[in-house]
């Protein structure tokens, strides 16, 4: 009898023990959070794409060239502080309009200094003013058709003038002389030619 009662008691105890082990976990327990990936934050300005960054140019920026001349030959002559007399004489003739023209090959003007006019015989300039035709002949003798810097001008043996008469050109060491007058200031660029300052008035024969 004792054995019969002991077996059910043992079975009951075993069932209670198994039920305790199968009790569900506490609902209040927080689930374990998996570790976040180790991500290094990036600079918002650095998107890692090298192609998006501007590349430095291998070539240095080109230097701007010299500014183009904006004044015509006549305006350039008028702008010479030591060429006022020549400019005033041209303005009294029809040559003024021609020297403003952009047509053709341009002009190379040989401008005597004011001192060069003062060295002429007394009253010579006034005589020219009273004789427009003669004055125009003298002025045309100072104008060479075409745009010639001092290098090109020095290549002439005789240079043509708008008067229709040639004028002698000589290169003496570093000096260039035209009709015996020395070029003392050269290569003054105009929009339609060049201006050279000379130390003597050229008088056609």
Please explain how this structure is put together.
The protein is 31% helix and 18% strand. It is of the alpha+beta class and 205 residues long. The chain is globular and about 40 Å long. The N and C termini lie far apart (169 Å).
Structural class comes to alpha+beta
Largest sheet: 7 strands, mixed
Whole-angstrom Rg: 50 Å
| Strand order of the biggest β-sheet | 2-1-7-6-5-4-3
Treating each run of at least 4 consecutive H or I residues as one helix, how many helices? 8
Poorly predicted runs: 19-29, 50-54
Strand content: 15-25%
Shape: globular
Q: Helical proportion? A: 25-40%
Order of helices and strands: HHHHEHHHEHEEEEE
What does the average pLDDT come to? 80
Number of strands: 7
Distance between the termini: 169 Å
Comma- or semicolon-separated keywords:
about 200 residues, single chain, alpha+beta, 7-stranded mixed sheet
In short:
The protein has eight helices and seven strands, in the order H-H-H-H-E-H-H-H-E-H-E-E-E-E-E. It is α+β, with helices and mostly antiparallel strands.
Furnish the topology, listing elements before pairings.
Blueprint: H1 2-21, H2 73-78, H3 84-90, H4 95-99, E1 107-112, H5 114-118, H6 124-130, H7 132-140, E2 143-145, H8 150-153, E3 158-159, E4 167-172, E5 175-178, E6 181-190, E7 193-198
Parallel strand pairs: 1-7
Antiparallel strand pairs: 1-2, 3-4, 4-5, 5-6, 6-7
């Amino acid at each position: 009898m004792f054995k019969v009662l002991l077996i059910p008691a043992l079975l009951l105890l075993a069932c209670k023990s198994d039920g305790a082990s199968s009790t569900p976990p506490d609902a209040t327990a927080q689930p374990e959070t998996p570790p976040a990936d180790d991500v290094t934050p990036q600079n918002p300005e650095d998107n890692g794409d090298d192609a998006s960054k501007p590349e430095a140019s291998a070539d240095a920026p080109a230097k701007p060239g010299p500014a183009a001349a904006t004044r015509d030959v006549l305006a350039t002559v008028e702008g010479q502080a030591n060429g006022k007399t020549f400019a005033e004489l041209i303005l009294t003739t029809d040559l003024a309009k021609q020297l403003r023209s952009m047509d053709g090959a341009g002009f190379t003007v040989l401008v005597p200094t004011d001192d060069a006019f003062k060295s002429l015989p007394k009253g010579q300039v006034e005589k020219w003013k009273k004789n427009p035709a003669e004055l125009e002949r003298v002025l045309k003798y100072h104008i060479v058709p075409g745009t010639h810097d001092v290098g090109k001008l020095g290549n002439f043996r005789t240079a043509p003038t708008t008067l229709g008469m040639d004028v002698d050109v000589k290169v003496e060491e570093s000096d260039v002389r035209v009709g015996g007058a020395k070029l003392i200031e050269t290569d003054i660029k105009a929009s339609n030619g060049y201006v050279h300052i000379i130390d003597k008035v050229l008088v056609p024969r």
